[in-house]
Structure formats: structure tokens, C-alpha cells
Amino acid sequence: MNSSLDHLSPTTSSARFSLPSKSTSASRPNIYERNLNKSRLSEVSAPSFSFLFSEIVQYTQKRVSGINDLERRLNTLGYRVGSRVLEITAYRAEFSSKAPKREIRLLPALMAIHTQVWRAVYGKPADAIEKSVENVDEYMIIDNDPLIERHISVPRDFAGLSCSSFSAGIVEAVLDGLGFPARVTAHHTPTSTYPTRTTILIKLEKSVLDREDILK
Description:
It comes from Lentinula raphanica. With 216 residues, the protein is α+β, with helices and mostly antiparallel strands. It is built from eight helices and four strands, in the order ααααααββαββα. The protein has helices spanning 4-7, 10-16, 22-27, 46-61, 67-96, 106-122, 165-178, 206-215, and strands at 128-131, 138-143, 182-188, 198-204. Strand 1 (128-131) and strand 2 form a beta hairpin. The radius of gyration is 21 Å and the shape is globular.
């Protein structure tokens, strides 16, 4: 019986795999040539998204030292996604409006995240946005039924894990890109009606509040 190295030899791989012919590749649309505005309504099925995300969580879980490390990595992954979501939404807004504008006030920026960003990523707006009554630098985005939490079974030794740290990373990236630096974290706030209810906590930097006071 041949070893696994035999199957990975250059001779074998070159015989089994080859580059597509010019005529074949030319007949297929290149993903990099697609019109970004025409593909804005394309959607990925929820089961496919959930399966991919659960695989990401399982892959990452095997390479971390604990819950905090796993949430940090999910946050980093979400941050990368959020940066690209901001780019594509800004691009589409520029071509869909004769007078595109960049939000310079905090509340309109938060509402854009609550509605436009959430719809772009999860297919629907978030359920609520609230301001903390205790701390003036804190706001909260509420998702009663997070898509990424629906098919995640958290083991007992990871009982405090919030996979919505991925969503927190997206929010943090968008806020940074818009000029509202903040620390964003995800927290489980379940109710009897919504057992997976999650709160995305936004803690703004002092410079943001100082600028808001000047713009009043």
C-alpha cells in the first residue's frame, strides 16, 4: 500500500489536477469582476452561515487557553469582517445617493449600525438600541435572537462563552472606521421569552463625548 506521501507527490498531483483551460475560465464570471451594487441583495442561507460559523468556533476552541482567549479571537475575526462591511456599505451609499454623507454625530452612527450594518450581516435590523442610565459613555445594541447563537452548543467548561463577541468585533470596527473609537463587548442577557438574548455593550472613549459636547 502506498503511503500518504505518495498521494501528495508532485507527479500524482499534476496528473490529477490541472489549471482550467482558457475557454473554460473565460466562460465563468470572475468573482472580482462582479458589480458590487448588483450583488447587494444576494444572501447566504442561514443554515450555511450557521454551519460555517460553528466550524470556526470549533476550530478556534481547540487553539485557545480559555473563554477570554476564545472571545478575543472571535472579536478579532468580527473586527476584520466589520471593516469590510463598512467599506462596502459606504461604497454602495456613494453610488445610490446623489449626496452621500458621512455621519459625524454619535446617535445617527449608532442607528446606522443598528439598522444598516445588522441587516447587511444578519439580514435584519437589531431589536433595540439603548443608552445606559448609569454611565454616559455606554450604549447597548440588543439582539433578541442572534443568528450566530442559534446552532451553537456551548460545553459546560465554556458556560460563560458569548459567541456574539464576533458581532461585538463588527460593531467596534465600524465605530472605529466612522471615527467613534470604543471598546465593544458581548454579554448574555437572557429572558424567559428570548433565552439567547444578547447585549452588545459599547463603551465610548472620552474623546467621542467631548466632540459630541462641542457639536451640540
